[in-house]
Amino acid sequence: MKLHEYQAKEIFAREGIPVPMGRIARNPREAFEISREIGSEVVLKAQVLVGGRGKAGGILFSSLEEVEEKSRKIFSTEIKGERPELILVEERLNSVKEFYLGITFDRSRGRPVVMTSSEGGVEIEEVARRSPEKITWVEVDPLKGIYPYMIRKLSRPFPKEVRKEAHEIIAKLYEIFVKYDAELAEINPLIYDGKKLVAADAVLNINDDSLFRQNFKREEEGIEGIASREGFSYVTLDGEIAIIGNGAGLTMATLDAVEMEGGKAANFLDIGGGVPPEGMKKALEIVYMNEKAKLVLVNVFGGINRCDEIAQGIRMFFEERGGKLDKPLVVRLTGTNEEEGRRILEEIGIEVYKDLREAVKSAVRRVKNDTSL
Amino acid sequence: MILVSEKTKVLVQGITGRQGKFHTRLMLDYGTKIVAGVTPGKGGEMVHGVPVYDSVEEALSEHEVDASVIFVPAPFAKDAVVEAIDNSIDFLVVITEHIPIHDVAQMKRIAEIEGSRFIGPNTPGIISPGRAKLGIMPHRIFKQGEVGVVSRSGTLTYEVVDSMTKHGIGQTTVLGIGGDPIVGTNFIDVLEMFEEDRETRAVVLIGEIGGKAEEEASSFIKDEMSKPVVAYIAGRTAPPGKRMGHAGAIISGGIGTAESKIKALKKAGVSVAEFPWEVGRILSEII
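Predict the joint structure of the above. Result:
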């Protein structure tokens, strides 16, 4: 779960990492009020979770006179499909030099890695490609935690005058990384204004699997939100064949197969394991909401899931709609209790494929050939 | 055959839960030697004829155990893993999904220090067909044979194994390393074991987007393996920045694309199947 910049900065401030003076505005009027309190040039930052908001016009510098107009402009700008509801209004910092500080997991080694760089303000992946020697990094043993000697190494890129502050900020960010079950904690840029260091930006991604012991509320909207509350993984795509599968790998493989046969997937929906009939019915309701989708392809390889229960769910959905589906349904069922599942569906006139290849081919052919779909 | 055989004596942690109970039955039916179970507070009960204990220590005072299968819910899974490791069980199968990433990092480190190995989390388990199953796979699709299978995914493995079995190609051992970003045992560990295993003549690697595990496996295959490897990678059409079901299946910062993995594997001499159902046919041509 990605936190908004202002939420991450609230945590930083609480834990003792210096952040710019500022507050959140819900409308241009509030933005003006906050700017007046700050009393200097401000920066207006759209609070959206997608990357690249600066380039998309989501970050603007402003004098007090222009604040209302400029924040109105940001509120009405769609940034990669997201329209900002909040703007963070902050003092404009005087930047002498920009640094990078980030903590994430090295997946292969299974350990946190802390990185600093004198090349702040650009993506760290780009620095890693262009000039890897400009990144200082240490790997931390998750049982021992971070030690001062590691932080001394990480503080080296910072100017002498603020090395002590850098040391404290690195130690505190590591504390936050652990305390809040983060997958990624990043300050980019960490600005040196000639006197002190300030976290000009803040990224904090909380591990989804840790939310049960953290105090964050997920605010997902639309179809993805509905799906996630049902315990499904859902990703919206822009094709015309809606896909329901069980298991992440198999569902991805189904998407790939559809595309390689010449079709395009409308979504990714993984129902997971041990789904009761009601769950399967819910999954169908979710994909039938997508107006772009012209056909629905179900691919279930029963293991923990039982084909008869999946089929019962399909039948419940079918009967609830009076036996009429506005998008055709192609079903592939195999594995645990396959025969019973097939029997249930054949009773209501739904053809069941045993073979994934044939199901995919049939789905793509029907979408392509039948222009009335 | 690697890691598990018909002789492996198995403990099931979380044996009285819904999944634990159900799969204990299926594992027993398959012939797996389950000698005891553990659920704190349920000591003295029986599950399908298997005695249940309150702690691993108590179970071990009555039984010899080689491996533990863990069905304990995510919030308590780290405790269960450490309990097993502290009692010197040196092979664990962590079926549990959604364990916090910081817990998994610590589990991995503890296992390294104590010399234990775990597979998972979020794994369908491990099966040596015809001998033993420590996990949740539908056993009917497997067939004893000469090909080792290692995978990051559950149901996709079933699809691939099904295609192998239909082509008459059996398996020595099939192992899921798990769909999480951090796992106890990685591709290279398993490839190394298959390379050394005398029964295994070829290996199937099933990967997916996210991380660099397949790229790292490719260099190992290129430098260290003599046996032929066939691979399938899921997620060619996955958009960047989106988690595709598995916690580990995400392309971020340009890292983890299917394209990069397929390229690395092909460079290492691996035959990469376009579709999961092709794996059986490709294998029948090379062995």
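The first strand of chain B starts at residue 9 and ends at 13.
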